[in-house]
Specification:
The chain is built from 3 helices and 7 strands, in the order H-E-E-E-E-E-E-E-H-H. It has about 170 residues and is an alpha+beta fold. The strands form 2 sheets. A 5-stranded antiparallel beta sheet has the order 1-2-3-6-7. A two-stranded antiparallel ribbon has the order 4-5. Bound molecules: nickel (II) ion. Nickel (II) ion binds next to helix 2.
Length: about 170
Amino acid sequence: MALLPILRYPDERLHCQAAPVERVDEEVRKLARDMAETMYAAPGIGLAATQVNVHRQVIVIDISEERNRLVTLINPELLAREGEQVCEEGCLSVPGIYEKVSRAERVTVRALGLDGEPFTLQAEGLLAVCVQHEMDHLQGRIFVEYLSRLKQVRIRGRLAKQARITA
Ligand code: NI
């Protein structure tokens, strides 16, 4: 297993569209394992392949406190969405920034698991937020893009300052 470097906003590569996985083979399973390890080490509750500069439709999520309920979604498709919730979100690609975003309260998603078999996930609350946030990454969308332009400019300024301090 390996820790993967995470792209940071406003890296242009975060805007790439991820391609569907054609076959769930050992290479895809290794990617998912490395992504899970990277997410747990960060620590974070979700990671999309886009964030580690792999433009394939793979997502890992674990919102449990015990960090033992890993969900891997390959080629996720949104089947249904209902309701609305506003939740404060963060992102491993936008470190230190937390902002409120409006999302569906409940979503139903179909995806392939690590065994290549399709399954359906019904999610609500935080898990639904996380699924929508990570599926956005696969489309090249980052949560801060739901905010006003002014806020986006401020966030880019703060991140540039952080990067200078770290460097
Ligand atoms: Ni994110």
